[in-house]
Design a protein that fits this description.
three-stranded antiparallel sheet; 6 helices; globular; mainly alpha; about 40% helix
Amino acid sequence: DLTQCIEESVWGNSRFARQGNALFGQRVWSAGNGIVPQERESGMQYEVKAFDALYQSISSYIHNLNSHKAYEGLRFERARLKKENSYVSGYALSGTLHSYSERGADYIDALRALIRVNKLGQFENAKLIPEQVAQIFN
């Protein structure tokens, strides 16, 4: 989800995004497989998972949402909306992400504010065209 990418990577400016192509703040508990957060509490062992390429971060994020038990509610709500031929929006699905962040409801509020303020709903049905190559310049 574009909104989570924005929130988790601080619009691509976080240390995790810049140093480890980590767009979604996914945690890993094997030492050396990620980047140690500067604000990590004493005694905690997790790192933020690092990737060789951006697409790997996206692929891992999608796999996480579609397979981890914590996101069963998201998958259930998505299936329910599709079955009812209702519009499946990021705004609606964001309400199921209580477990994605320790911030809980505040995280969901932040996601929904990003969607509203930046009019991100207009990108709901955007598709990448495989024949075209995007270039990013620093």
